[in-house]
Amino acid sequence: MNDMSGKPQYRVVGTRPVRPDGIDKVTGKAVFSADHFVAGMIYGAILRSPHAHARIRSIDVSKAAALPGVQAVVTGADFPTLQSLEVELGEGGGNIVDFSRNCMARDKVYYDGHAVAAVAATTLAIATEALELITVDYEVLPHVTDLAAAMAPDAPILHDKIRTKGLDTPSDKPTNITMRYVKQHGDAAAGLARAKVVARGSFSSAPVHQGYLEPQACTVSYNADGQVLIWASSQGAFMIRTVTAQILNIPIADIRVTPLEIGGGFGGKTVIYLEPVAVLLSKKSGRPVRLAMSRSDVFRATGPAPGTVCDVAIGADENGILTGAEVIFSGSAGAFPGSGTHPAAICSLACYKIPDYYIEGQDVVTNMACTAAYRSPGAPPIIFAVESVIDELANTLGIDPIDFRLRNAVQEGDPSPTGTPFGPIGLKEILEAAKVHQHWSEPLGPNQGRGIAAGYWPNFGGQSTAAVSLTDDGTVIVTTGSPDIGGSRASMAMMAAEVIGLPYENVRAIVADTSSIGYSMLTGGSRTTFATGKAVVEAAEKVVDEMRSRAAQIWGVDGSEVEWIDGEASCTAPGKEARLTIKQIAGKTGMSVKGPISAESTVNPPDPGPGIAVQIVDVEVDPDTGTVTVLRVTALQDVGRAIHPSYVEGQMQGGVVQGIGWALNEGYVFNAKGQLDNAGFLDYRIPVASDLPMISTVMIEVPWPSHPFGVKGVGEAPICPPMGAVANAVSAATGVRMRHLPMSPDRILSDIAAAQ
Q1: What is the Cα–Cα distance from 468 to 447, expressed in whole angstroms?
Q2: Does residue 571 form part of some domain?
Q3: pLDDT of residue 4
Q4: What is the spatial distance between Cα 610 and Cα 604, in angstroms, rounded to a whole number?
Q5: Are 410 and 351 in contact (CB under 8 A)?
Q6: Three-class SS of residue 24?
Q7: CA–CA gap between residue 246 and residue 250 (Å, rounded)
Q8: Tell me, what's the pLDDT at 436?
Q9: Per-residue pLDDT reduced to its tens digit, 244-278
């Protein structure tokens, strides 16, 4: 049913029901990984390297193993030798050998915090004491944590076997530059030469952590029959199963992963660190083992987003039409390759029509923890650089920043970053909404500035499985394999309820373990409501079809003579007016030779709708201290169709908050020894409520045609604009262009002084 505007009217989709996990979480009953208890469980602890780069001459664990209460000790020697194998995990991937060596060092340690040994004991205190009895003989090697220094010809080499992939002329020289990726169209130099104005700049950013509240933890039981049971909070239970099996040479079917509640991830829990270690400890001890990270462990040993350096040049003609662009950047991958070079290149210029461009990205290893996804992995700091230069162009030409972006904004039919035409994409609608928003015309005070920026993320489809089952009393269970990190249980239940015609309260959505539902790719890339939701809708439609068939069987009519209207079967056969409710149909399944009503659907949609976001930010800069106060933010986004608007607004606001932290105060700080100096929330300062202003949201719905309800993923795009918007606002307030993240007070004062 449509309203007068032609917009579909739904009973459940677009409403704001209570989240299914809300009560357990606010009452403290939700079970997270560190809460999970198994009978006979013992406790693990990991010894970590104090050095940024060192060769391991020897490890002596004999004293630790002899300590009363110690049940098992594991080192790199306990891991099998693996052949090189590339693994795709959704938001990232890499080589299984690298994953294994990141879980436990072998001949070398590559960063401060790299795991070198693990102990399991009857108490955590004994396990921790045992770590102190392990003797490691290190040969300390030169290290490099600075990205630019890692690319220098005389830089310490992390991996002797790395050669740069993607060079025009291959080199056989060891290097820290693992790969070069080039994306181009036309002649960038000619495009820049045609421009009336060219804006250029060199930009950089520090590595930043996702800052999730729950540290990584897991409980593992290696059973006598060879079956491995894993309980963990992760963005991908199937990812844990696959990677653990490959690292330890265990058949995948022998591993069963049960997802627990997850206390934040933001991409940082799309890889594994503990599970293979815990499996070996459990196998050796014959007991279930719990292994958990401390907060310091999380910062030192789990993946931050990469630090970057980026050079941008963009040109425009006298009318403000972009003519050409060049973007050259590098990202710090940490100890092993994988800094998100490809998505960063894809997203960098995606918001704008530019006829001639050249994009080049490099992936660089450095002596820090291996990087992991962080909402739009790889893209935000490069978009910050591009949006800063776009702002400079608009200012130089005297064109309103929104008008400038409107003149160049991509729209439906324009080539996307992959070369295929864009489908329905709402960038122009968002910018037009921003221009008429009261925020854009509100007057500013002294030392205040306003900035705007846009951002893009392509979103993903990916493999998903869902099952929908009708219970005896006519309620419905929706089962998926996608961990719920942003409200997916509610959205899955809502879509199923909409299709079947049930109230939301009559549908229960659960996330099953890996042996109870078919494969689903991890929850990431803003794919879950789109892809897994599509599987749920298809399964729900199958259930509706089967209920129609059962009703036809009961009435003795042809299936074509039964319609499904408002959650009931209605007979349209002449002279046979009849209706059956879902509960009535469910109550008769035992009398049918077909038995229970249940359906499963598997999908792998290749055509997700992209995420597009625009944000307006007001700041005030204290001229004496350089302190930036964010006064107001308006976040606008093309959300496709908001299944649960409150969750969508939360995603938009969350991206803003993390982007503000990235822009102003977050960043890894290494000392002269390559050790992380701010491995905790006291020194690594994320924004708290008192740091944040009102964050208004504007949802623009441009439905995506390949999803039954028009869904576009919304989780990644909101973190793409805020760094550029904050930087543009600070530059407007100070008159000085800020080119490094974070824009800390001392850096702002220094840049202002240098410009005078």
Answers
A1: 57
A2: yes
A3: 42
A4: 16
A5: yes
A6: helix
A7: 7
A8: 98
A9: 999 999 999 999 999 999 999 999 999 999 999 99
Task: Find, among 56, 462, 89, the residue nearest to 246 by Cα.
Answer: 89
Tokens 């020194």 -> residue: 683
Q: Which residues of the chain have pLDDT under 50?
A: 4
Cα–Cα distance, 296 to 681 (Å, whole number): 9
Letter for the amino acid at 229? L
Cβ neighbors of 266 (< 8 A, separation 6 or more) are 210, 211, 212, 373, 374, 375, 658
Q: Where are the extended beta strands (E) located within 11-69?
A: 42-48, 54-60
Q: Give the Cα separation of 680 and 20 in Å (integer).
A: 32
Pick the last residue of a domain from 549, 569, 603. 603
Residue with tokens 């950013």: 205
Amino acid making up residue 448: Q
Angstrom distance (rounded) from CA 254 to CA 553:
42
- The DSSP symbol for 151 reads T
Furthest CA-CA distance within the chain: 90
- Provide the 8-state DSSP code for 8: B
For residue 64, give the DSSP letter.
H
Domain that holds residue 114: 36-142+211-301
Q: How far is CA 13 from CA 172, 382, 648, 753, in A?
A: 57, 35, 13, 54
How far is residue 198's CA from residue 323's CA, in Å, rounded to a whole number? 9
CATH code for position 471 = 3.30.365.10
118 and 226 in a single domain? The answer is yes
Half-sphere exposure of 63 (CA within 13 A, CB side): 10
Report the C-alpha gap between 559 and 77 in whole angstroms. 64
- In this structure, is the dihedral angle defined by the CA atoms of residues 63, 66, 67 and 69, taken in order, positive or negative? positive
Check: CB of residue 224 under 8 Å from CB of residue 254.
Answer: no
Distances in whole angstroms, Cα of residue 131 to Cα of each of 135, 230, 293, 299, 675: 9, 24, 14, 20, 20
Write the single-letter amino acid at 207: P
What's the confidence (pLDDT) of residue 6? 58
Question: Vertex 201, ends 199 and 203: CA angle to 5°?
Answer: 150
Pull the structure tokens for residue 449. 């500035």
For 47, 56, 231, 308, 572, the CA distances from 675, given in Å and listed in that order, are 15, 18, 32, 19, 75
Question: What is the token pair recorded at 578?
Answer: 């009849």
Residue 575 is predicted with a pLDDT of 83
Domain's final residue, options 580, 603, 626:
603
Buried b (16+ CB within 10 A) or exposed e, 500-528: bbbebebbbbbbbbbeebbebbbbbbbbb
Q: Is residue 664 part of a domain?
A: yes
- Residue 736's identity, in one-letter code, is V
CA angle 60, 671, 75 (to 5 degrees): 20
Q: Which residues pair with 724 in a beta bridge?
A: none
Asked if residue 534 lies in contact with residue 707, where contact means CB atoms within 8 angstroms, the answer is: yes
Residue reference for tokens 């909404």: 433
pLDDT at residue 85 in the model: 87
Per-residue pLDDT tens over the stretch 389-424: 999 999 999 999 999 999 999 999 999 998 899 999
Q: Does residue 588 share a domain with residue 490?
A: yes
Rounded Cα distance between 521 and 604, Å, is 10
What pLDDT does residue 484 have?
Answer: 95
Instruction: State whether 499 and 421 are in the same domain.
Output: no
502 and 429 within one domain: no
Give residues with Cβ within 8 angstroms of 575, minimum separation 6: none
Cβ partners under 8 Å of residue 125, min gap 6: none
Do residues 395 and 451 make contact, with C-beta atoms less than 8 angstroms apart?
A: no
Counts for the chain of helices (H) and strands (E), in that order: 20, 29
**What is the predicted pLDDT for the residue at 90?**
64
Total of domains in the chain = 3
Provide the CATH number for the domain around residue 114: 3.90.1170.50
Can you tell me the distance from the alpha carbon of 290 to that of 640, in angstroms, rounded to the nearest whole number? 42
Task: Identify which of 54, 57, 56, 61 has the alpha carbon closest to the alpha carbon of residue 281.
Answer: 61
User: Does residue 67 contact residue 128 with C-beta atoms inside 8 Å?
Assistant: no
Q: Are 39 and 508 in contact (CB under 8 A)?
A: no
Sheet holding 108-109, edge to edge: 108-109, 54-60, 135-140
